[in-house]
């Protein structure tokens, strides 16, 4: 059970609150994934007669996003079929050509073909195939490319065919690439489209009436698509790529009293973890996947202020589920309601379950949010039982004012003349002589040391920085003071040379060892293997190509007792996958949004049979640091402010923050982001510590911090 100054588990203030303020009432699908292997998965029966398809809403979920075909769409312009449209700012002299056909040999006329450079999901060029299926992508720069092919969705004859990537790839992790040289014409890049899978059925209400306009959602490892049921409740998804899918159903505004119906997953359950997965292959048909939406219960009450006056615009967020050995398992969807001018709220369409309620103001407010009943954290919240269509009334709440009576935090700075002496100053502020270990990382490149924070926290050792070929004087002085029992170098000799390694031997009574691998990802694995045993509760995954998310997440990972492993944006390295299989954690936390760690990687994590996968993310690096900080309860001993545009100060500060149970919040040099300001006001830390000198965090920001109280 968390207590003051320990990380919060379950609440996602920065992400959920931002989303929920856009809702008045209804359903919000939780941003949480679970492994297919933890759930029932079914494959289709022998091909059967499908339901009638006339007037059915149809969607091809895996169709690529095809650009606007009208002339003048951004920098890419519509061209004649077979001739490439390219980014006018990067026209080259290379080309790719081939022919697009169906599996029966017919040419695909006006099919979509796009070329994408490795590491990018934006089309460098696209083209619509000619009548005979041929295409030519011209004006390309040299590079490593893959191709995406999609049928003409406007042609009924093309209906049901699945989009694919070059060399019959259907998953992002299977994408195949080929090199294109300057001025080279690569020919013979032909593709044959196959029929995709089909899922269809009918949605009805509890009394048997068709659920006209009901929302039917299909999810494939983080990719979501939605279709509305027809007037007679029928729906169909076609042209599906081979994958494991989750199907969910909910009533829409076209259904009278739509909010009274309980959303559900295929398998007749409100719990995503109990959903029956659909293993769809090429040409396979799932028909008759019918759902009946049942009426649910409700919870209602009144929200007032400390003076008894009703409060409007208070969001009520409800989560149903249960606590297991693996943590909290939420229901298929959360529910939300907002108080009216009389402070009244009613949350409807609730499944039979135990519900936890959170009340919080929308936007700026003097009132402090809370959980039912009068609890500060969702782990302590009293749950309200709803059964069938039962109406639970009288769940009234009186919100208190935020306690602003105490003194505002003391603002201090830990800094030196450069990054090396700043790291030494951070170390000296916390660590005493005779520490068990000191870690040495490159002060010039971040990758090898990104995963160091949690390990340094767990082993009670500082992270000091060094130049590749010389040990800075400030670091020598700090090591002389510390006399660590051992020294661990993070990374290979390319980061910290053998000569520095030899020099380090004079500062410890024990050994000097290295933790490194063939690349940054393997190094994060080596760091993890040095300390962590299988069966962990939590593991954190962050981008290995950028530093902010890993650094702001390091204190949270350290307190949770889990490592940080690094990933590519679009693929999970095998070494990391193997380490996760060894660790078998209950939960994986992705640090950052899909721009840092893609949905493809999220899908790969899901397939590793980990119980749950969560994200801590924000709109940018600063709000992502706020998302990581949202794990902490108000009143923390210290909050740390580091420059979000460079890595050294936050890297050295990670074990300090972890050991003092405080977050690291990122900021530009000269301006404190609004998201960070709001988080500091929520936390009301006893101390605010700036990491780095005025070249990293300016005196202007220091003044802002002092004035927040």
Describe this structure in words.
- 18% of the residues lie in helices and 30% in strands.
- The chain is flat, with a radius of gyration of 28 Å.
- With 709 residues, the protein is an alpha/beta fold.
- Mean pLDDT is 82; it is low at 1-41, 43-59, 61-80 and 324-328.
- The chain folds into three domains: 13-30 and 296-398, Immunoglobulins (Immunoglobulin-like), CATH 2.60.40.10; 85-193, Sandwich (Immunoglobulin-like); 410-707, no CATH class.
- The chain has 13 helices and 44 strands.
- Strands 1, 24, 25, 26, 28, 29 and 30 form a seven-stranded antiparallel beta sheet that branches.
- Helix 7 (548-560) runs parallel beside helix 10.
Average pLDDT works out at 82
First and last CA, distance: 30 Å
Spans with pLDDT under 50 lasting ≥5 residues?
1-41, 43-59, 61-80, 324-328
| Strand elements, count | 44
Structural class: alpha/beta
**Major sheet characteristics:** 7 strands, antiparallel
User: Any idea what the shape is?
Assistant: flat
Give the fraction of residues assigned to helices: 10-25%
Q: From the alpha-carbon coordinates, what is the Rg to the nearest angstrom?
A: 28 Å
H/I helix tally: 13
- Give the percentage of residues in beta strands: 25-35%
Q: Any idea how many domains?
A: 3
């Amino acid at each position: 059970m968390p207590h003051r100054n320990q990380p919060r588990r379950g609440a996602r203030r920065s992400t959920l609150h931002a989303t929920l303020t856009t809702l008045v009432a209804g359903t919000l699908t939780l941003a949480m994934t679970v492994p297919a292997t933890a759930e029932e998965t079914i494959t289709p029966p022998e091909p059967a007669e499908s339901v009638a398809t006339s007037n059915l809403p149809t969607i091809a979920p895996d169709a690529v996003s095809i650009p606007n075909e009208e002339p003048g769409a951004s920098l890419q312009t519509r061209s004649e079929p077979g001739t490439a449209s390219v980014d006018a700012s990067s026209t080259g002299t290379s080309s790719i050509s081939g022919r697009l056909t169906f599996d029966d040999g017919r040419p695909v006329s006006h099919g979509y073909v796009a070329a994408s450079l490795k590491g990018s999901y934006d089309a460098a060029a696209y083209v619509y195939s000619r009548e005979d299926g041929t295409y030519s992508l011209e004006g390309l720069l040299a590079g490593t490319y893959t191709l995406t092919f999609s049928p003409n969705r406007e042609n009924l004859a093309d209906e049901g065919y699945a989009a694919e990537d070059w060399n019959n790839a259907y998953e992002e992790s299977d994408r195949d690439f080929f090199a294109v040289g300057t001025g080279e014409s690569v020919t013979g890049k032909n593709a044959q489209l196959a029929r995709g899978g089909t899922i269809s059925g009918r949605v009805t209400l509890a009394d048997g009436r068709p659920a006209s306009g009901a929302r039917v959602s299909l999810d494939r490892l983080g990719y979501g698509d939605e279709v509305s049921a027809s007037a007679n409740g029928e729906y169909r998804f076609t042209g599906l790529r081979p994958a494991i899918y989750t199907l969910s159903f909910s009533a829409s505004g076209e259904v009278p009293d739509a909010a009274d119906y309980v959303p559900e997953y295929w398998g007749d359950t409100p719990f995503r973890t109990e959903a029956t997965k659909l293993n769809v292959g090429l040409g396979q048909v799932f028909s008759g996947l019918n759902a009946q939406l049942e009426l649910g219960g409700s919870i209602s009450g009144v929200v007032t202020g400390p003076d008894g006056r009703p409060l409007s615009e208070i969001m009520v967020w409800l989560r149903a589920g249960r606590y297991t050995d693996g943590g909290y398992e939420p229901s298929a969807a959360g529910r939300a309601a907002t108080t009216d001018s009389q402070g009244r709220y009613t949350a409807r369409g609730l499944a039979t379950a135990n519900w936890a309620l959170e009340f919080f103001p929308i936007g700026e407010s003097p009132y402090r949010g809370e959980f039912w009943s009068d609890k500060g954290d969702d782990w302590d919240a009293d749950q309200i039982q709803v059964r069938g269509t039962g109406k639970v009334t009288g769940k009234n709440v009186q919100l208190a004012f935020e306690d602003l009576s105490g003194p505002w935090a003391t603002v201090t700075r830990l800094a030196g003349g450069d990054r090396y002496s700043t790291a030494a100053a951070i170390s000296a502020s916390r660590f005493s002589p005779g520490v068990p270990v000191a870690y040495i990382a490159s002060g010039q490149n971040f990758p090898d040391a990104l995963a160091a924070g949690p390990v340094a926290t767990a082993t009670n050792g500082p992270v000091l920085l060094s130049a590749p070929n010389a040990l800075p004087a400030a670091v020598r002085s700090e090591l002389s003071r510390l006399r660590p029992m051992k020294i661990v170098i993070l990374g290979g000799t390319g980061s910290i040379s053998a000569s520095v390694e030899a020099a380090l031997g004079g500062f410890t009574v024990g050994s000097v060892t290295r933790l490194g691998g063939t690349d940054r990802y393997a190094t994060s694995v080596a760091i993890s293997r040095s300390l962590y045993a299988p069966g962990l509760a939590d593991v954190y995954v962050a981008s290995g190509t950028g530093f902010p998310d890993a650094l702001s997440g390091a204190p949270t990972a350290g307190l949770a007792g889990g490592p940080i492993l690094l990933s590519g944006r679009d693929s999970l390295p095998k070494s990391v996958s193997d380490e996760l299989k060894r660790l078998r954690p209950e939960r994986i936390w992705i640090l950052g949004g899909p721009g840092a760690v893609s949905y493809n990687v999220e899908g790969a994590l899901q397939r590793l049979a980990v119980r749950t996968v969560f994200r801590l993310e924000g709109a940018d690096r600063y709000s992502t640091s706020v998302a990581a900080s949202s794990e902490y309860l108000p009143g923390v001993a210290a909050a740390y402010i580091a420059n979000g545009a460079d890595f050294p100060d936050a890297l050295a500060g990670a074990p300090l923050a972890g050991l003092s149970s405080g977050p690291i919040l990122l900021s530009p040099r000269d301006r404190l982001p609004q998201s960070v300001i709001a988080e500091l006001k929520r936390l009301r830390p006893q101390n605010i510590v700036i990491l780095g000198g005025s070249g990293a965090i300016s005196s202007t920001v220091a003044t802002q911090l002092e004035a927040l109280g």
